[in-house]
Structure formats: structure tokens, C-alpha cells
Amino acid sequence: MVAAYIMLMNSTEQGFQNVGSWPERVVSARSQIKAAEGKLDGVYVTMGAYDVVAMLSGSDDAGTAKLAMGLGKAGNVCTVTLRAFSD
Questions:
Q1: pLDDT, tens digit, for every residue of 24-71?
Q2: Cα gap 16→12, rounded to integer Å
Q3: CATH of domain 3-84
Q4: Mean pLDDT of 69-75
Q5: How far apart are CA 1 and CA 75, in angstroms?
Q6: What number of other Cβ atoms are within 10 A of residue 68's Cβ?
Q7: Average pLDDT over residues 9-16
Q8: How far apart are CA 52 and CA 43, in angstroms?
Q9: Which pLDDT belongs to residue 79?
Q10: What is the model's pTM?
């Protein structure tokens, strides 16, 4: 069963300083998610409380949590990950 997740992200000071590498970071994230048997379904730069919203599919909560921690460890974003349920 594939689970759906919504990841809310805010850029850190480091992330804003490295904004030029944003496209490469998205490509890297896609590769990491794919390696974890997931899929990045969409990524959006947003206005409001969060800088970026990503929608992804993953095989389990533990794998998705590991991905979120890896993104945070890189230092460019802080994440909030939500498990999403459809009708």
C-alpha cells in the first residue's frame, strides 16, 4: 500500500543563502525519495506560512520520516510532515 504525505518546509538562513541551488536540491530530493521506494508527486514554492509544499508517496511512515530528517540534516529547510488520507 502506498501512503500519501504532505511536507511543509521553511527555508533556513542557509537555505536562503543557497537559493541558487534550489533546482539541484529538488533533483536530489527526487532521487532520495525514489531510492526509498517513494515518489515526489509535486513540489510548490508558496506564499504564506511555509516557503515550500511537497506532496509525496511512500511505502511507510518510517521511511518518510527518515527522508524528512535527511532534508533537515542538510540544513537548508525545516520540515513538518503530515500523513495524508484520501476519501
A1: 888 988 888 888 888 999 999 999 999 999 999 988 899 899 888 988
A2: 6
A3: 3.30.70.920
A4: 89
A5: 31
A6: 19
A7: 92
A8: 7
A9: 94
A10: 0.86
Assigned C-alpha cell, 73: 540534516
Residue 75 main-chain phi, psi, to 5 deg: 90, 0
Query: How far, in Å, CA of 8 to CA of 82, rounded?
Result: 8
How many Cβ atoms are within 10 Å of 50's Cβ, its own excluded?
A: 18
Q: Which positions ≥6 away from 15 have C-beta within 8 Å?
A: 75, 76, 77
The single-letter code of the amino acid at 28 is S
Domain segments of the chain as ranges: 3-84
Which positions ≥6 away from 69 have C-beta within 8 Å?
Answer: none
Q: Are 57 and 41 contacting, i.e. CB atoms less than 8 angstroms apart?
A: yes
Which runs of consecutive H residues, i.e. helices, occur in 1-87?
A: 13-17, 22-35, 61-74
